[in-house]
Amino acid sequence: MSSDATIGRIESGRVIAILRGDFAANGCEIVAALAEAGIIAVEATLNSANALDLIKQLATRFGDRLAIGAGTVLTSKEVNHAADAGARFIVSPNRNIAVIEASKRRGLVSIPGCFTPSEIVEALDAGADAAKLFPASCLGPAFVRAMRGPLGSIRMVPTGGVTPELARDYLRAGAWALGIGSELIGSNPLAPGAIEQIAARARAFVAALGPERA
After folding, report:
1. How far apart are CA 61 and CA 52, in angstroms?
2. Which one of 12, 20, 163, 188 has the fewest beta carbons within 10 angstroms of its own beta carbon?
Protein backbone atom coordinates (compact mmCIF):
# COMPACT_ATOMS: atom_id res chain seq x y z
CA MET A 1 0.00 0.00 0.00
CA SER A 2 1.37 3.43 -0.95
CA SER A 3 1.70 6.31 1.50
CA ASP A 4 -1.11 8.13 -0.30
CA ALA A 5 -3.38 5.12 0.06
CA THR A 6 -2.55 4.84 3.76
CA ILE A 7 -3.27 8.53 4.26
CA GLY A 8 -6.56 8.07 2.42
CA ARG A 9 -7.62 5.21 4.66
CA ILE A 10 -6.81 7.10 7.85
CA GLU A 11 -8.63 10.14 6.51
CA SER A 12 -11.72 8.16 5.55
CA GLY A 13 -12.10 6.72 9.04
CA ARG A 14 -10.64 9.55 11.14
CA VAL A 15 -9.83 7.21 14.06
CA ILE A 16 -6.54 5.43 14.77
CA ALA A 17 -7.18 2.72 17.35
CA ILE A 18 -4.16 2.22 19.62
CA LEU A 19 -3.31 -1.25 20.91
CA ARG A 20 -0.97 -1.00 23.89
CA GLY A 21 -0.43 -4.14 25.97
CA ASP A 22 -0.31 -7.88 25.39
CA PHE A 23 -2.67 -8.74 22.55
CA ALA A 24 -1.10 -12.03 21.51
CA ALA A 25 -4.19 -13.97 22.57
CA ASN A 26 -6.90 -11.90 20.91
CA GLY A 27 -5.39 -9.06 18.87
CA CYS A 28 -6.87 -10.24 15.57
CA GLU A 29 -10.29 -10.72 17.18
CA ILE A 30 -10.20 -7.19 18.57
CA VAL A 31 -9.18 -5.67 15.24
CA ALA A 32 -11.89 -7.65 13.43
CA ALA A 33 -14.45 -6.20 15.87
CA LEU A 34 -13.06 -2.70 15.36
CA ALA A 35 -13.21 -3.09 11.59
CA GLU A 36 -16.79 -4.32 11.70
CA ALA A 37 -17.70 -1.23 13.74
CA GLY A 38 -16.09 1.08 11.17
CA ILE A 39 -12.55 1.65 12.50
CA ILE A 40 -10.09 1.25 9.62
CA ALA A 41 -6.72 2.32 11.09
CA VAL A 42 -4.96 0.46 13.90
CA GLU A 43 -1.64 1.14 15.62
CA ALA A 44 0.21 -1.44 17.73
CA THR A 45 2.71 0.21 20.06
CA LEU A 46 6.24 -1.17 20.10
CA ASN A 47 6.41 -1.07 23.90
CA SER A 48 3.81 -3.84 23.93
CA ALA A 49 4.60 -7.53 24.30
CA ASN A 50 5.29 -9.23 20.94
CA ALA A 51 4.36 -6.03 19.10
CA LEU A 52 6.18 -6.88 15.87
CA ASP A 53 4.55 -10.30 15.71
CA LEU A 54 1.16 -8.65 16.20
CA ILE A 55 1.84 -6.09 13.46
CA LYS A 56 2.82 -8.90 11.11
CA GLN A 57 -0.37 -10.83 11.91
CA LEU A 58 -2.55 -7.76 11.46
CA ALA A 59 -0.84 -6.75 8.21
CA THR A 60 -1.26 -10.25 6.81
CA ARG A 61 -4.90 -10.60 7.77
CA PHE A 62 -6.19 -7.03 7.43
CA GLY A 63 -3.63 -5.15 5.34
CA ASP A 64 -5.80 -5.22 2.23
CA ARG A 65 -8.57 -3.19 3.92
CA LEU A 66 -7.12 -1.52 7.02
CA ALA A 67 -4.20 0.82 7.64
CA ILE A 68 -1.89 -1.01 10.05
CA GLY A 69 0.81 0.97 11.83
CA ALA A 70 3.36 0.95 14.62
CA GLY A 71 3.30 3.31 17.58
CA THR A 72 5.74 4.45 20.27
CA VAL A 73 8.50 4.26 17.66
CA LEU A 74 11.59 5.93 19.12
CA THR A 75 14.51 5.00 16.84
CA SER A 76 15.35 4.51 13.17
CA LYS A 77 16.07 0.85 13.90
CA GLU A 78 12.55 0.42 15.23
CA VAL A 79 11.19 2.04 12.06
CA ASN A 80 12.93 -0.60 9.98
CA HIS A 81 11.71 -3.44 12.19
CA ALA A 82 8.14 -2.13 11.98
CA ALA A 83 8.36 -1.73 8.20
CA ASP A 84 9.67 -5.27 7.82
CA ALA A 85 6.73 -6.51 9.90
CA GLY A 86 4.26 -4.81 7.56
CA ALA A 87 3.49 -1.47 9.23
CA ARG A 88 2.38 1.23 6.81
CA PHE A 89 2.49 4.20 9.18
CA ILE A 90 4.79 5.19 12.05
CA VAL A 91 3.64 7.07 15.16
CA SER A 92 5.92 8.44 17.88
CA PRO A 93 5.31 10.23 21.18
CA ASN A 94 8.01 12.77 20.28
CA ARG A 95 9.42 14.69 17.34
CA ASN A 96 12.56 12.82 16.30
CA ILE A 97 13.90 13.96 12.94
CA ALA A 98 15.84 10.70 12.43
CA VAL A 99 12.65 8.66 12.90
CA ILE A 100 10.75 10.88 10.47
CA GLU A 101 13.47 10.55 7.85
CA ALA A 102 13.75 6.78 8.32
CA SER A 103 9.98 6.43 7.92
CA LYS A 104 9.99 8.35 4.65
CA ARG A 105 12.94 6.33 3.34
CA ARG A 106 10.85 3.20 3.83
CA GLY A 107 7.83 4.75 2.11
CA LEU A 108 5.79 4.96 5.31
CA VAL A 109 3.43 7.61 6.60
CA SER A 110 5.11 9.57 9.41
CA ILE A 111 3.10 10.88 12.39
CA PRO A 112 5.49 12.21 15.06
CA GLY A 113 4.41 13.57 18.42
CA CYS A 114 4.37 17.37 18.78
CA PHE A 115 3.26 19.77 21.49
CA THR A 116 4.11 23.26 20.20
CA PRO A 117 3.76 25.16 16.92
CA SER A 118 7.55 25.06 16.50
CA GLU A 119 7.64 21.28 16.88
CA ILE A 120 4.81 20.90 14.38
CA VAL A 121 6.56 23.04 11.77
CA GLU A 122 9.92 21.31 12.36
CA ALA A 123 8.28 17.91 11.93
CA LEU A 124 6.60 18.90 8.69
CA ASP A 125 9.81 20.44 7.38
CA ALA A 126 11.53 17.09 8.04
CA GLY A 127 8.94 15.29 5.91
CA ALA A 128 6.24 14.27 8.39
CA ASP A 129 2.80 13.69 6.92
CA ALA A 130 0.88 14.65 10.06
CA ALA A 131 1.51 15.82 13.62
CA LYS A 132 0.34 13.79 16.59
CA LEU A 133 -0.74 16.32 19.23
CA PHE A 134 0.33 14.61 22.44
CA PRO A 135 -0.81 14.63 25.12
CA ALA A 136 -3.97 16.14 23.65
CA SER A 137 -5.59 16.24 27.09
CA CYS A 138 -3.24 19.15 27.89
CA LEU A 139 -4.11 21.02 24.69
CA GLY A 140 -7.78 20.53 23.82
CA PRO A 141 -9.87 21.44 20.77
CA ALA A 142 -9.13 25.14 21.25
CA PHE A 143 -5.46 24.51 20.45
CA VAL A 144 -6.39 22.74 17.23
CA ARG A 145 -8.68 25.58 16.25
CA ALA A 146 -5.97 28.15 16.97
CA MET A 147 -3.45 26.24 14.86
CA ARG A 148 -5.77 26.27 11.86
CA GLY A 149 -5.10 29.99 11.46
CA PRO A 150 -1.34 30.06 10.85
CA LEU A 151 -0.99 26.38 9.91
CA GLY A 152 -4.22 25.70 8.10
CA SER A 153 -3.06 22.90 5.82
CA ILE A 154 -1.47 20.61 8.42
CA ARG A 155 -2.89 17.27 9.43
CA MET A 156 -3.29 17.19 13.22
CA VAL A 157 -3.95 13.99 15.18
CA PRO A 158 -4.94 14.72 18.79
CA THR A 159 -4.07 11.71 20.95
CA GLY A 160 -4.67 11.08 24.63
CA GLY A 161 -7.89 11.38 26.61
CA VAL A 162 -10.17 11.53 23.55
CA THR A 163 -13.77 10.57 24.34
CA PRO A 164 -16.59 10.30 21.77
CA GLU A 165 -17.80 13.78 22.73
CA LEU A 166 -14.33 15.28 22.48
CA ALA A 167 -13.73 13.43 19.22
CA ARG A 168 -16.55 15.38 17.61
CA ASP A 169 -15.24 18.65 19.04
CA TYR A 170 -11.72 17.95 17.80
CA LEU A 171 -12.85 17.25 14.24
CA ARG A 172 -15.04 20.34 14.20
CA ALA A 173 -12.03 22.34 15.40
CA GLY A 174 -10.03 21.08 12.42
CA ALA A 175 -8.32 17.85 13.50
CA TRP A 176 -7.50 15.47 10.66
CA ALA A 177 -7.73 12.24 12.67
CA LEU A 178 -7.74 11.07 16.29
CA GLY A 179 -5.55 8.61 18.17
CA ILE A 180 -7.65 6.67 20.67
CA GLY A 181 -6.28 4.08 23.09
CA SER A 182 -7.74 3.10 26.45
CA GLU A 183 -10.91 5.12 25.86
CA LEU A 184 -11.63 2.66 23.04
CA ILE A 185 -9.80 -0.55 23.96
CA GLY A 186 -10.37 -0.43 27.72
CA SER A 187 -8.06 -1.47 30.53
CA ASN A 188 -8.47 -5.25 30.34
CA PRO A 189 -9.03 -6.54 26.79
CA LEU A 190 -8.70 -10.15 28.01
CA ALA A 191 -11.65 -9.94 30.43
CA PRO A 192 -14.82 -11.88 29.61
CA GLY A 193 -16.99 -9.87 27.25
CA ALA A 194 -14.17 -7.39 26.52
CA ILE A 195 -14.39 -7.72 22.74
CA GLU A 196 -18.11 -6.99 22.77
CA GLN A 197 -17.45 -3.94 24.94
CA ILE A 198 -14.69 -2.76 22.59
CA ALA A 199 -17.03 -3.15 19.62
CA ALA A 200 -19.70 -1.14 21.43
CA ARG A 201 -17.25 1.66 22.22
CA ALA A 202 -16.04 1.64 18.60
CA ARG A 203 -19.61 2.02 17.38
CA ALA A 204 -20.08 4.89 19.84
CA PHE A 205 -17.05 6.71 18.42
CA VAL A 206 -18.18 6.14 14.84
CA ALA A 207 -21.71 7.33 15.69
CA ALA A 208 -20.41 10.38 17.55
CA LEU A 209 -18.31 11.46 14.61
CA GLY A 210 -21.13 10.88 12.14
CA PRO A 211 -20.90 13.37 9.24
CA GLU A 212 -17.68 14.76 10.75
CA ARG A 213 -15.92 11.69 9.27
CA ALA A 214 -16.86 12.72 5.75
Report:
1. 14
2. 188
